[in-house]
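Narrative of activities, Objective 1.

The group set out to show that a structural description can be obtained from nothing but a protein's sequence at a throughput compatible with the screening campaign. Below is one input-output pair from the validation batch, recorded exactly as produced.
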Amino acid sequence: MLEASDSTTDLPAIPSKRYFTIGEVSELCGVKPHVLRYWEQEFAQLKPVKRRGNRRYYQRHDVLMIRQIRSLLYEQGFTIGGARQQLSSEGAKEDNAQSQQIIRQLRIELEEILQLLKR
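Output recorded for this entry:
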């Protein structure tokens, strides 16, 4: 079990680059490359770009997702299945919040149109 001092806050800052190699991501997230390749199979949200010779190139959002997966597994004690479920439920909550915001905005615009038509 990892100690509290090994939390995500102890990981190095993510540099402002567009793409990261698997070795760079390994260092940034404190996870070995073979673990990253395994997590790609287990978590649908993790899809690095593959280029020449099947080389993986991760983007910033991939690095953030890996850090979140690492936290769920290593710090919060989730199983792979539990972490997968947690991530998908968080995604559903975000989608629901976005939908609610869009509905609110549409309602405001429709009420403004209604006020214009009443004049």
